[in-house]
Amino acid sequence: MDAVWSAVAKLYGEYGASLTSLALIDYDVEKKTAVIRTSLATVDLVRASLASITSVAGREAAVHVLAVSGTIKALRMKVRR
């Protein structure tokens, strides 16, 4: 989450980051997947920020969006396929 917050703040500033209401819902260490909640109005800002991440905790990384959904339940159903 530190990398996500940093990326959002770097691209949109502190004010833009505060609008996102980012929250980590779930993280699977084995699958290396995370579920992140954000406000509907800032989905595009967060997606752009995720694409700009090149390292996490000092290690090279690439972040990909697998799915976007209005509810956590629907998101879990999309990702299971």
Number of helices: 3
The main pleated sheet reads as: 2 strands, antiparallel
Kindly report the name of the CATH homologous superfamily: Ribonuclease P, Pop5 subunit
Number of domains: 1
What's the count of strands?
A: 4
| Named CATH architecture | 2-Layer Sandwich
**CATH-derived topology:** Alpha-Beta Plaits
CATH C-level label: Alpha Beta
Strands in their spatial order, largest beta sheet: 1-2
Low-confidence stretches: none
Provide key terms for this protein.
3 helices, Alpha-Beta Plaits, 4 strands, 81 residues, two-stranded antiparallel ribbon, alpha+beta
Description of the structure:
The relative contact order is 0.18. A two-stranded antiparallel sheet has the order 1-2. Strands 3-4 form a two-stranded antiparallel sheet. The termini are far apart. It contains three helices and four strands, in the order H-E-E-H-E-E-H. By secondary structure, it is an alpha+beta fold. It has one domain: Alpha-Beta Plaits (2-Layer Sandwich), CATH 3.30.70.3250.
